[in-house]
Specification:
Elements (H helix, E strand, L loop, with lengths): L3 E3 L19 E4 L13 E4 L8 E3 L2 H4 L17 E7 L11 E2 L1 H7 L6 E5 L17 E2 L1 H9 L4 E4 L14 H6 L3 E4 L11 E8 L7 E9 L1
Parallel strand pairs: 5-7, 6-8, 7-9, 9-10
Antiparallel strand pairs: 1-12, 2-3, 4-10, 4-12, 5-11, 11-12
Length: about 220
């Protein structure tokens, strides 16, 4: 029997969030509905945006109308995607942000033409207030190496790929190569196999480049 691991980060009030103008998630109960006879329960997801929690994204995030919206990605391409799981060590939430380097990735032996999931064992910090601010990031040479492998999708368990204080400037090349972005993810430390199958199903919303999704890995 296949082992299924949910790699979707949970959404909750007070969670980490990107800086303004991104709104903060504020889930509240729906007020009483006076046009039905019985009490009903529902919630309002105020502040939910397209990069809330775990999300899937197309190059339209940077390229706009020159690319394609998420809804145009065929569903069959998002089910049982063959992935290579790369686990990197030495990352913790104390001190300065640490980069993912080209040397780390070369040592991992990444294949060409397969989707890539990179774990820095960062998902365990999902509920830590420093989850975003202390996140690992990619050095440009590391991202150049990943782009050269021509993956269909690249996913990680950390949220901020760029170093805003010392910009690496790789995103134009990343999106120009038509690679889907997935993340941030959790529970990657529970994956035992180096090869597995990923399913990532975003909300079915038109005219957006990215949307929250439910993602799981099957071994």
């Amino acid at each position: 029997m296949a082992k299924i691991t949910d790699v979707t980060g949970v959404l909750y009030n007070g969670m980490w969030n990107y800086e303004p103008p991104f709104p903060k998630l504020n889930m509240q109960p729906l007020p009483e509905v006076d046009w039905v006879e019985t009490k009903v329960y529902c919630d309002i997801f105020d502040g939910l945006h397209s990069q809330s929690g775990t999300y899937l994204e197309t190059p339209a995030h940077l390229l706009g109308d020159k690319s394609y919206p998420l809804i145009d990605v065929p569903l069959e391409k998002l089910v049982d995607i063959p992935v290579q799981i790369i686990k990197l060590s030495g990352f913790d939430i104390g001190g300065e942000r640490k980069p993912v380097t080209c040397e780390m990735l070369e040592a991992a032996g990444i294949e060409s033409g397969v989707s890539i999931i990179i774990s820095c064992d960062w998902g365990k910090y999902w509920r830590d207030e420093r989850y975003l601010s202390a996140s690992p990031y990619f050095e440009k040479s590391a991202m150049d190496y990943l782009i050269s492998k021509k993956p269909f999708l690249l996913g990680t368990d950390f949220a901020r790929w760029e170093n805003l204080e010392n910009p690496q400037g790789f995103f134009p090349d990343f999106y120009a190569n038509d690679i889907l972005m997935l993340g941030p993810l959790v529970n990657l430390e529970k994956i035992e196999s180096k090869r597995a199958y990923l399913t990532a199903l975003p909300l079915n919303i038109e005219k957006t480049c990215c949307a929250p999704c439910r993602a799981f890995i099957k071994e």
